[in-house]
Write a structure and sequence with these properties.
The protein is mainly β. The chain is built from no helices and 11 strands. The protein has 2 domains: about 5-65, no CATH class; about 65-135, Elongation Factor Tu (Ef-tu), domain 3. The two termini are about 25 Å apart. The model has no long low-confidence stretch (mean pLDDT about 90).
C-alpha cells in the first residue's frame, strides 16, 4: 500500500489523499476504510497524475481523473431540477459538498443524472441558502 502523506477533509469525508507513490487498489488498498467513491488522490513524484476513487471504502479502485466533471450550483426550495450545464444522462454523482457550510450532501441529490444539463435535488428541504460542488463521473 502507498504511504499516505496528507489528507484533506470536508466535514467527516476525505476529499483528497496525497500519497508517496502510485496508490494500490483492492481490499488492502490505499485509503481503505476512509476514501469514499469520488475521493481524489495525488501521488507525489516526477509525474504526478490526479486519480479518482471509483470503488468502495472497503475496496478502493483508483483511476485517472480524465472523466471527472465538476459543477457548482445553488440548491433549491424543495425537490426538483437544478441547472447543471454539461451533465449527461447516466453520469454518476460521486460527491456533493455544501460549500456554504462545509459538509457532505450527497443524500440530498440524485446519484445518477436522469435529465441532461440538470441535477435533481431529492431533498424536500429549502437548500437555496447553500452552494454545492458536485463531482460527476462519466
Amino acid at each position: 500500500m502507498s504511504a499516505i502523506i496528507s489528507t484533506v477533509r470536508i466535514g467527516a469525508s476525505v476529499k483528497l489523499l496525497v500519497v508517496a507513490s502510485k496508490p494500490v487498489d483492492g481490499t488492502s488498498g490505499t485509503g481503505k476504510g476512509q476514501a469514499a467513491q469520488g475521493t481524489m488522490c495525488l501521488p507525489t513524484g516526477s509525474k504526478p497524475r490526479l486519480l479518482i476513487q471509483r470503488g468502495t471504502k472497503a475496496s478502493p479502485t483508483w483511476r485517472p481523473q480524465t472523466d471527472l466533471v465538476t459543477v457548482v450550483a445553488a440548491g433549491r426550495n424543495g425537490a426538483g431540477a437544478i441547472t447543471a450545464t454539461g451533465l449527461k444522462v447516466g453520469d454518476k454523482v460521486v460527491s456533493a459538498t455544501n460549500l456554504t457550510t462545509p459538509a457532505g450532501a450527497l443524500a440530498s441529490f440524485e446519484s445518477e443524472i436522469t435529465v441532461a444539463d440538470q441535477i435533481q435535488q431529492s431533498s424536500a428541504s429549502n437548500l437555496t441558502s447553500s452552494t454545492y460542488i458536485f463531482q460527476v463521473l462519466r
